[in-house]
């Protein structure tokens, strides 16, 4: 079975470069898909409190028969718990639902709410050895810079996010945010690596031509692009054949010309605009 290559976080923890996501999966789908993914060879599973399927993910992990220490598990804290006190309890709630003793990575899901109090709580969990790594999600270049400098220069917290999970695919390559992440040794993790099927990605002429030249699918080309750009990808699927095909990206390499053509597809097209006030209103409407 192919072993997924890893990337080393700033604290020395190794994180698989290819993981499996369960966003928008119901409990049955999440449980069965996690089992299928782990049997295929994935060793990283990404969930979140807001997905409401942590218990099912935990059952899938247990039923897979794969030793816990061999699986990199990520969950995320929702904005309803984005305070110092609530964040500590939210972490334990996620652990209880997953049926685990620790998480490998715990992320602040959104750049809203009391992000500084929340970060202080996450740093406390990390320093106490209750979680192996901590990070953020959906922080753009400006928000990430403000977050880092405020923590370091005003609050006095030196611990930086080890990961920033953001929307990343050929049409939204997050170049400016990546520059900030590289400056501070923060690993780039990409959600919606296949653009959630939008922008007609699977019929794109450039990607289709590259796929044909390598005898691969468009999905495999895009996930290989993530890998070669040192972006951790977390594709999701409830279909066993797609789960397996998305894993099959380690037996070929994109050329410099291939990479150049994909770079030229970048058009800052997002599936979700996190800077849209109406989107933020919708986030806060889900506090209950």
Report the order of strands and helices.
Answer: EEEHEHEHEHEHEHEHHEHHH
Main sheet: which strands, in order across?
A: 3-4-5-6-7-8-9-10
What is the CATH topology descriptor? TIM Barrel
* β-sheet strand percentage: 5-15%
The CATH superfamily label reads NADP-dependent oxidoreductase domain
What's the CATH C level?
Alpha Beta
Backbone structural class: alpha/beta
Beta strand count: 10
Number of helices: 11
Count of structural domains = 1
Helix percentage range: 40-55%
Indicate the low-confidence ranges by residue numbers: none
The gyration radius over C-alpha positions equals: 18 Å
**Distance linking N and C termini:** 44 Å
CATH architecture: Alpha-Beta Barrel
* Basic shape: globular
Mean pLDDT: 97
What summary fits the major beta sheet?
A: 8 strands, parallel
């Amino acid at each position: 079975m192919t072993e997924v290559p890893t990337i080393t976080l700033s604290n020395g923890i190794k994180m698989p470069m290819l993981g499996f996501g369960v966003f928008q999966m119901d409990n049955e789908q999440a449980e069965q898909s996690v089992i299928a993914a782990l049997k295929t060879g994935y060793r990283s599973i990404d969930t979140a409190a807001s997905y409401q399927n942590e218990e099912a993910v935990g059952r899938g992990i247990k039923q897979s028969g794969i030793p816990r220490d061999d699986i990199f598990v990520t969950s995320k804290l929702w904005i309803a718990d984005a305070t110092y006190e609530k964040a500590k309890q939210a972490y334990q709630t996620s652990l209880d639902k997953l049926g685990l003793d620790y998480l490998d990575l715990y992320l602040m899901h959104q750049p809203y709410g009391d992000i500084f109090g929340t970060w202080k709580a996450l740093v406390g969990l990390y320093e106490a050895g209750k979680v192996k790594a901590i990070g953020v999600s959906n922080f753009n270049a400006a928000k990430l810079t403000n977050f880092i400098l405020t923590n370091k220069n005003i609050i006095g917290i030196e611990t930086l996010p080890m990961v920033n999970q953001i929307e990343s695919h050929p049409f939204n390559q997050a170049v400016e945010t990546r520059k900030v992440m590289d400056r501070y040794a923060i690993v780039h993790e990409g959600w919606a690596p296949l653009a959630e099927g939008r922008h007609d990605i699977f019929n794109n002429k450039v990607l289709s031509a590259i796929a044909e030249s390598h005898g691969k699918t468009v999905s495999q080309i895009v996930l290989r692009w993530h890998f070669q750009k040192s972006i951790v990808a977390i594709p999701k699927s409830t279909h066993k054949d797609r789960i397996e095909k998305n894993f099959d990206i380690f037996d070929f390499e994109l050329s410099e010309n291939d990479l150049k053509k994909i770079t030229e597809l970048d058009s800052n097209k997002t599936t979700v605009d996190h800077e849209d006030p109406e989107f933020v209103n919708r986030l806060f409407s889900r506090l209950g």
